[in-house]
Amino acid sequence: MTxxxxxxxxxxxxxxxxxxxxxxVALDARGEAxxxxxxxxxxxxxxxxxxxxDEVTLTVQCGDVPExxxxxxxxxxxxxxxxxxxxxxxxxxxxxxxxxxFSLDKRHKFVVKTNVSPDEPxxxxxxxxxxxxxxxxxxxxxxxxxxxxxxxxxxxxxxYEGFEGFPGRxxxxxxxxxxx
Length: 180
Description:
Blueprint: H1 29-41, E1 48-52, E2 55-59, H2 65-74, E3 82-90, E4 95-102, E5 109-116, E6 122-124, H3 133-144, E7 147-149
Parallel strand pairs: 2-5, 6-7
Antiparallel strand pairs: 1-2, 3-4, 4-5
C-alpha cells in the first residue's frame, strides 16, 4: 500500500494566438480638434493622421521623426513638452516605433508612429528633443534591436553586455518547460 500519490504530468497545451480586442474609435472634442491641428501643422510632411481607441495618431516617415517631435514640442498649438513613453510593436514584417506625447498645459495627447524593417531597424534618435528619451531608446535597443542613430550611447539598460538576441521580438526563442 502506497501513501504517496504522484501528480499526473500535465501535457503541454498548444499556444493560441492572442485575440486583440477592437474598441470603437471615439475621439472627444479635444481629440477632434487636435487631429485638425496636426493635419494643418504637418501638412508639409508625408503624414497620416488617424485615431486608435481614444488617441490621435500621427504616422510619419522614419527620417522625419526628430523634426516632427521638435515641432510637436515647440509649436504653441501642440505644445507637447512631455514624452510619456516610447514603445515598440513587433508585427513580424515590420517594427512600429511609437512616441507617446502629452501636453501638460493643453491636456491633450497623441502618438507619433513610424515603421522600420526588422532587418535594418534604424530610427533617428530624439534625445536632442527630449533628454528623457535616453532610457526609452536604450530599452528599445535592448529588447527589440532598434538602433537610434545619433544616440549618445546605446549601452545596455536591462540586459547584460553580450546578451544575444532581442527578447521583445516575437521571433525570440523562449525555453519550453513543463508545468507541474
